[in-house]
Amino acid sequence: MPSLSAQPVNTLDDLRDRLAREKPTTDELVLIMGAGNIIMGDEGVGPTALDYLHKHYDFPENVALLDVATTGISMLPNLEGMDHLIIIDAADDSGHPPGTVIFYTPEDLADQQVMHSAHDQRLTDVLFAAKLTGIELKSVVVVGVQVESLEHFVLELSEPVKEAIPVACAATLHCLQELGYAATARSDVEVNPVLLDALQNYGPETSSKED
Question: In the structure, what pLDDT confidence band is assigned to residue 121 with cuts at 50, 70 and 90?
Fold first, then answer.
């Protein structure tokens, strides 16, 4: 069992003061995006976590899961029509140990985001470009994982980052819950107990406490 040092550093309560507080309606669309290059070591944490979510959970029809290689302008078509965006991505220079899961706003991540290719762009720049094209997202949250190593042509995640995958998934499910939607664990797949422990013991406060 990995240590719980991988727990989120910031709670969604910290983000609520800086993100839109609109109560979502049932027709709002949520995009969960895993960003990263799976052949560059820990940079592949986003797609790896997204794959785990795909295999272990069923999501409401208004929630889409998408694996992307970069956070470049090529993201824009995928954002069209979306109301909320949750991104799972690699982070660096956070000041925390490898494998630490951290909630970010795009602005928070700007100086710590791992660039996935020569064509990659800061998420803040992509979202600015989205606004220029008429795409207005109501909220954006980044689930960042502090990397240990970034190496070309390495398919494996480092041990701290690999152990943090269930925690990153739990953080993502919390973000989704904050928007009013819940994923359902598949009955035919065993969910990692670390993920269940993260959901129960150190997730952020639910929005019901604000009422």
Answer: low
Q: What is the mean pLDDT of the chain?
A: 78
Which sequence spans correspond to the domains of the chain?
A: 4-202
- CB neighbourhood size of 18 (10 A): 10
Closest to 138 measured CA to CA, from 59, 25, 13 = 25
Q: Which residue has the tokens 């019901």?
A: 208
Interatomic CA distance for residues 37 and 44, integer angstroms: 5
Q: pTM of the prediction?
A: 0.79
Q: Are 110 and 159 in contact (CB under 8 A)?
A: no
The superfamily in CATH containing domain 4-202 is HybD-like (3.40.50.1450)
pLDDT for 81 equals 84
Asked if the model's pLDDT at residue 27 lies above 80, the reply is no
Helix (H, G, I), strand (E, B) or coil at 181: coil
Contact between 45 and 99 under an 8 Å Cβ cutoff? The reply is no
Q: How far apart are CA 173 and CA 101, in angstroms?
A: 13
